[in-house]
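To illustrate the input format used throughout this study, we show a single complete record. The first block contains the structure-token representation of the backbone; no residue identities are included at this stage. The design step must infer an amino acid for every position from geometry alone.
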């Protein structure tokens, strides 16, 4: 969202543990109007967090739907606060037909407010037959399936300029401590180690989640994600302390903390891959590749590459994922055509449109890997589709939006405050617990 949690992997990545997929339904082909222009004269309004190159590439998918069905489409970018924007549109009698929901917590919220239509039998059959159980789980609320995951993200990738690392004489690290050491070597060579997008609080939650999953382990991660474990737990304080060592090291962060707090996600990618590089590395999801390629003309695998987020303190290297789920609103003026769009998004045909454009991973196992534009993405997609079950969904995306998905509030704001002053991890943990408790009770 702007650009929020997005998609790609790399060759040699730790097994991306997710068996995903979404295809044309198991018992027969999904029909989005059958190619007979049966939806001519109708307009489907779609709301989502995407902007920039992501919005442009999703529009190509919508245009393909139009060519197939005759339905016109209109995309409305919500920015990060998708929950607030969609809620106000519903209250104002101007609900979109389809929303691309970037957070499990928001999907849960929408369903419990009675805003969503259960998926059609065709879509449900598709997901049951072709999606890994984890995606059906995250698309369901109280046993009812509402969301179709169209776009998946691998959130455990550290992107770097091969030229910058080569000039510094360092290789992609295997552990978190090695990564910080390599960062100091890059800094000594004239560039900062990392560009940090502190203006976008969601990037900071991703830093925390990768450290926490590796350091504390999957069981505690699951417990914290559902607030069965309090944020005041010592494991949280330990992870914040680890993250704070990076935040307070002016050699490691381009421009220091102040500049990081004024750098958004696209800006952080520009600091590494733009015309005037300021840093050698940027941590974020595979969707970094789309920005590096589309906005700065980088060849993925040559001018821009990544290494898996490394293991922390002897733990297992983390694999954090995310995704954008298509849902249909009951109050949309054309919910029927909206459901047809959702059925189309389930097909490999739809996924191939964005796959060819880049900056995208599909959880559709019937999508031909040749559809992807480069070897790095192709290897990532293969790993994603064929993976196991150790992956964990983005923690902040599982939380209520008030805590895990609202600009200027909750976890986003508190981690921005922590970036500004990381001297009191225990105090920050207490503030996080207070905000989480309030949001989960609400």
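Output of the design step:
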């Amino acid at each position: 969202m702007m650009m929020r949690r997005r998609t790609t992997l790399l060759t040699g990545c730790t097994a991306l543990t997710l068996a995903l997929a979404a295809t044309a339904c198991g018992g027969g082909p999904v029909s989005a109007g059958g190619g007979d222009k049966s939806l001519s004269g109708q307009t489907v309004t779609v709301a989502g967090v995407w902007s920039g190159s992501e919005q442009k590439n999703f529009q190509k998918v919508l245009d393909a739907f139009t060519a197939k069905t005759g339905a016109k489409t209109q995309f409305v970018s919500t920015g990060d606060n998708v929950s607030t924007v969609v809620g106000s549109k519903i209250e104002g009698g101007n609900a979109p037909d389809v929303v691309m929901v970037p957070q499990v917590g928001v999907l849960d919220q929408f369903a419990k407010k009675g805003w969503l239509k259960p998926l059609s039998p065709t879509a449900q059959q598709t997901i049951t037959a072709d999606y890994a159980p984890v995606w059906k789980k995250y698309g369901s609320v109280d046993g009812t399936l509402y969301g179709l995951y169209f776009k998946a993200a691998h959130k455990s990738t550290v992107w770097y300029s091969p030229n910058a690392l080569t000039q510094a004489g360092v290789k992609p690290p295997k552990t978190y401590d090695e990564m910080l050491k390599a960062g100091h070597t890059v800094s000594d060579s004239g560039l900062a180690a990392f560009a940090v997008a502190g203006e976008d609080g969601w990037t900071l939650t991703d830093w925390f989640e990768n450290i926490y999953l590796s350091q504390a382990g999957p069981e505690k991660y699951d417990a914290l994600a559902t607030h069965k474990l309090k944020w005041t737990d010592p494991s949280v304080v330990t992870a914040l302390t680890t993250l704070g060592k990076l935040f307070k090291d002016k050699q490691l962060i381009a421009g220091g903390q102040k500049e990081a707090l004024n750098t958004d996600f696209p800006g952080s990618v520009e600091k590494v891959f733009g015309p005037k590089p300021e840093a050698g590395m940027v941590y974020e999801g595979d969707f970094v590749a789309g920005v590096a390629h589309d906005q700065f003309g980088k060849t993925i695998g040559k001018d821009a590459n990544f290494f898996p987020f490394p293991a922390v303190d002897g733990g297992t290297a983390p694999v954090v994922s995310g995704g954008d789920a298509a849902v249909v609103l009951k109050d949309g003026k054309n919910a029927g055509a909206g459901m047809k769009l959702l059925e189309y998004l389930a097909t490999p045909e739809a996924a191939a449109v964005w796959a060819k454009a880049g900056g995208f991973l599909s959880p559709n196992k019937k999508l031909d890997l040749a559809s992807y534009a480069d070897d790095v993405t192709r290897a990532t997609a293969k790993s994603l589709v064929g993976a196991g079950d150790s992956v964990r969904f983005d923690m902040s995306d599982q939380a209520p939006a008030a805590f895990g998905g609202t600009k200027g509030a909750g976890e986003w704001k508190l981690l921005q405050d922590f970036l500004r002053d990381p001297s009191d991890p225990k105090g920050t943990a207490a503030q996080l617990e207070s905000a989480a408790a309030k949001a989960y009770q609400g």
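Structural context for interpreting the output: Residues 52-69 form the longest helix (18 residues). The domain at 157-317 is CATH 3.40.190.10 (D-Maltodextrin-Binding Protein; domain 2).
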